[in-house]
Amino acid sequence: xxxxxxxxxxxxxxxxxxxxxxxxxxxxxxxxxxxxxxxxxxxxxxxxxxxxxxxxxxxxxxxxxxxxxxxxxxxxxxxxxxxxxxxxxxxxxxxxxxxxxxxxxxxxxxxxxxxxxxxxxxxxxxxxxxxxxxxxxxxxxxxxxxxxxxxxxxxxxxxxxxxxxxxxxxxxxxxxxxxxxxxxxxxxxxxxxxxxxxxxxxxxxxxxxxxxxxxxxxxxxxxxxxxxxxxxxxxxxxxxxxxxxxxxxxxxxxxxxxxxxxxxxxxxxxxxxxxxxxxxxxxxxxxxx
Length: 289
Hints:
Blueprint: H1 4-10, H2 17-32, H3 38-66, H4 78-81, H5 86-111, H6 116-129, H7 143-164, H8 169-192, H9 194-199, H10 205-209, H11 211-232, H12 246-258, H13 264-288
Helix pairs in contact: 2-3, 2-7, 2-8, 2-13, 3-5, 3-6, 3-7, 5-6, 6-7, 7-8, 8-11, 8-13, 11-12, 12-13
């Protein structure tokens, strides 16, 4: 029987910046359009956090039953380690998705844009089929693409649209920036897991590209958000505040470029998550000022 602490670790709280960041930026962009609604921002945050926890448990369950987590480096995997049964982990994932759906329904009802329910359903489907189902796209090298779309574009623009009723260039640029950093987290994770993923037939983008090109991809993904912040500066000068976060980008980029592997990349994951959260907070503040 898994303990409460093990369930918390299995939820992978270090990935939560990927859920919080798009809501911050989307709300900042809504503020720039004079449309910030704190109650809707709070609901969007709840949806994002529940989806993130849901996808983490779903990934734990699906990888565990396939046996790809048997020799995983990194955080505890509930199913793979045997501390929780596959059924329990699957139920936890479905409960998180259910909570996300309930909060999303309230948010859509407040916004009046009922077509967004279809977007929400697509988010849940994307979360489940990342490693679930008979042909998971995460095993085919498409994980980064879907992370960019759903944890970048959809999450940021959806947050802005449900508050302001429209979007802007700043929202689009912010969505691309957040999506890039969310992708960087996944790229670092998959770089760490290349040996075990290749051995179990999990053809992630990192496995397909190889370690060296994956490292170059990580650097590009971390660099792009700062260029995008500058693109917002002519209309929103305070978005240049996001450039301060480059201080946090230096160390993980240095580690990745130096060739660290295995457990040494856990620090890169942690630092990239911190970078995304700080960058998003600064960009959101810059948009709101």
